[in-house]
UniProtKB/TrEMBL annotation:
Keywords, ordered alphabetically: Oxidoreductase
Top-rank lineage group of the source organism: Bacteria
GO molecular function per UniProt: oxidoreductase activity, acting on the CH-OH group of donors, NAD or NADP as acceptor
Organism lineage: Bacteria, Pseudomonadati, Pseudomonadota, Alphaproteobacteria, Rhodobacterales
Annotated Mannitol dehydrogenase C-terminal domain residues: 286-473
Protein name, per record: Mannitol dehydrogenase
Amino acid sequence: MPTPLSNATLSDLPDGIRVPRYDRGGLTPGIVHIGLGNFHRAHQAWYLHRLMDEGLANDWAIIGAGVRAPDAAQRERLLAQDCLTTLIELDPAGKSAEVTGPMIGFVPIEEGNGALVAQMAQPEIRIVALTVTEGGYYQKADGGFDAAHDDIRHDAANPATPRTAFGAMVAALRLRREAGQGAFTCQSCDNLQGNGDILRRAVVGLARLTDPGLADWIDASATFPNAMVDCIVPATGPAELALARELGIADNAPVTHENFRQWVMEDKFCAGRPDWDRVGATFTDDVHAYEAMKLRCLNAGHQILANAGELLSIETIAGCMANEGINGLFRKVETEEIVPHVAAVPDMTPRDYVDLIDRRFSNPEIRDTTRRVAFDGSSRHPGFLLPVVRDALAAGTSLDGLALVEALWARMCEGTREDGTVIAPNDPHWNALQAAAREAKTRPAAWIEQRRFYDDLAEAPRFAGAFGKWLAKLWADGTEATLRAYIG
């Protein structure tokens, strides 16, 4: 029988399972992390765990937090196993597992977020970090802060009982200022180019709606380091729970991940930080080059694959890479249309990076579903692909394949696969996307006239013409024939 995971059972786990080498009872908090999903536990928390294994950073333990009602279930799961997590590395050469323990608590999930605000106001909390997804930062189409959003309007009218993570951060910073304490570092760990700058706009912008003086203090006192994060981390389902049990661990929230991690960040921490660079993280003044390469090649690459995979009923990203047509689309768009707009970073050229991504995406042990990767395309296409389209328009370079990728997204959002099965809603804006996709079946421009996603790209004849051509072909000839036509 698998051993239930807890502090008391760590010594009972099977041989070969790496467990914390540090005394978890001696850890004290230094970080609040909002959004305790799989990615955080496989990535940022792992770096801290390995640092603690070296006898360091014992005063930087993590307190988990969330601002959505579903976060309460995650809280219960993790508290039931003393906030321990089993990480299972899925390497084609063989699986391995370790139990990590840098998280020591999880604040209650409650309306008004009082417990979260109180925790972040404690002076020992020096970093507040977030993984709230690319679409969780209340950005307008032009990248500015959306002060008119209902959630933001609520927090501006009710600053002591906020609804959003940003409102809770502002409330905690207000308490710290009133108590004569310093600010904490606000650290985004989401896949957004300039994520620290975006987080600054959200926090300072919200504060300015109610207290300009507080906004000025936050802007001057807090820091918002930009960072690039990278590790493929599938969602946890029955297969992952069963895999943990096969390894001898009864973990209610295990995490599977690939055998690759990268964390690159600016060294801008107003209240100190762990020495993450001792365990593989990179501090640099040029995060932009790293994040541009990753967002444009890897994150955009995911979108190149996922919509075509959904249409052809291919369940996983590795399955997409094994499909001749989808793999050909991926390689051609990446090398001919994305790489020309990506700069090299130390020890890595864009073309070498695409080869690395090819190997990572092709890992058959990683059951990363096309559905998960295709989720929230309304944030991911504007964030990862459309900036490259704009660069190609400005430079006069090829964008034919990029237009095809957007046509595949439109075709997917119509809501049916080519085998006739229904695609369940998979985007916060699904209803609007589906309506536009159905209109675009006979009038392709209807799709790219969605200004909240495409802004003025419908007015760019070269892009609009290519998009219309490919969408018409997808409906007339199907996905496989269209991919063959593009690959040539």
